[in-house]
Amino acid sequence: MAIYRPGERHRYHNILNKRKIKRGVTAILSLTAMVDMFTVLVIFLLQNYNSTGEILYIPKEVTLPKATMVKELKPAYVVTISNKEVLVDKTPVATFDEVKNNPEWMIKNLYDVLKAGLEKKKAEHEMGLKNKIQEVVNSARGQEEKDPNEWRKITIQSDKDLDFLTVKKVMFTVVEAGAGEINFAVMKRANETTP
Length: 195
Description:
The protein has helices at residues 31-52, 96-101, 108-129, 132-141, 164-176; strands spanning 66-67, 77-81, 85-88, 91-95, 154-158, 182-184, 187-188. The chain has a domain at 61-188. 37% of the residues lie in helices and 13% in strands. Helix 3 (108-129) crosses helix 5. The radius of gyration is 31 Å and the shape is elongated. The chain is built from 5 helices and 7 strands; from the N terminus they run H-E-E-E-E-H-H-H-E-H-E-E. The protein starts with 30 loop residues before the first helix and ends in a 7-residue tail after the last strand. The mean pLDDT is 76. By secondary structure, the protein is α/β, with parallel strands linked by helices. Strand 3 (85-88) and strand 4 (91-95) form a beta hairpin.
């Protein structure tokens, strides 16, 4: 029995004839490059989202008032006042009827939650001040220094149809708990031109 030389093989181990029949063109996608590209894109989008701020959670029963002059909100504790309840960072602390019908200005549950939260933020801020390396790096880059009262900021989301006395009671309690700067969340009104 004679020994014959085996036919040529291509990368998928199909034996080609000795007549060298043309094989079909197959395109192979390199998934490694595509995964690298998507990884860079995701990191870019996350960094961009991180630098522009955060999106506030607005309950469906709260309709924010509209305003033309607005500033970007900084991260802070969020106190939401709806026609059903008062929330601190999505945690209910009092019902709307309790706040409205209470003759006292102080809302005890709201005060306790905010006082504990602000003290925790103050401790975190003071621990951050001990890390002077970050401040030196920021000053070398020309970035502005952090606001020393940043931990005292509160954002209030209030339904536009609520009575002012209820909102004022919440504001009084927030200030008594130790808040410094109070911001109101609003929707930006489109610039209307009058003819």
